[in-house]
Amino acid sequence: MIHLHLCLAFLRVGLLGYGGGPSSIPLVHQEVVKKYHWMDDDDFSDLLALANTLPGPIATKMAGYIGYRVSGWLGMINAVLSSILPTIFLMIVLLVSLSSIKNLSFISGMTKAVVPVVAVMLATLTWDFFIKATKGLGAVKTVIFIIVCMTLIEWIGLHPGLIIAGLILYAMFKKEKEDQDDCKEEQQ
C-alpha cells in the first residue's frame, strides 16, 4: 500500500507541478507533510535546504530522498519515476501538439492564469517557513537574516546553494567547537 501512496503522491506532483521545481515544492509539502505525514515541517525544511545545495531538479531529488526514507530503494525508484514520467509523457505530447495550437488565445490565457496560482502557493510556503524561522531564531534575527540573504542572492548574485553550504559548515564547526568545550569542562 505504501508503494501505491508514494506513486500517487509523486504522480500528483509530476502532473500538477506546472512551472518547474519551485512550483513543485508546495505540492511535495502538501503530499509528504500534510496528507501522508511521512515527514514533519522541520524534516521537510531540512530536506529542502539540502536539496537546494545539490545540482539537478529539486523535485526529483526530493522524490528520491522521500521515497528512500519511506520505503527503501524500491520506494526511491517508485517516487522518482512517478515524479518524472508524467513530465516526460506530457512534454512529448505537448511538443508534438503545441506547434499547431500555440496561437490559440485560450492556450496563452491558460499559461498566464497559472502564474498567480503558483505565486500564491509559493507565498504560502514562504510564510510557513518565515513563521517557523521566527520560532527558532526570533523575529528580529529572522528579518535580518532574510535581508542579508536577499542581498547576497539578488544583488550580489551569490548562488543560494553556497549560502546553504556555508551555513551547514558553520553549524558543523560550531557543534564541533561546543563538543570540544564540553569535553574540556568535563575534564576540569
Question: How would you describe this protein?
Answer:
The chain is mostly helical and 188 residues long. The protein has a domain at 2-103. It is 88% helix and 0% strand. It contains seven helices and no strands. It has helices spanning 2-16, 21-35, 41-53, 58-101, 105-137, 139-155, 160-187. The mean pLDDT is 85.
- If you average the pLDDT, what whole number results? 85
Strand content: under 5%
Q: Give the quaternary arrangement of the chains.
A: single chain
Mass-distribution shape: globular
Rg computed from alpha carbons, rounded to a whole number of angstroms: 20 Å
Biggest beta sheet attributes:
none
Write the layout of secondary structure elements.
Elements: H1 2-16, H2 21-35, H3 41-53, H4 58-101, H5 105-137, H6 139-155, H7 160-187
Helix pairs in contact: 1-2, 1-4, 2-4, 2-5, 3-4, 3-7, 5-6
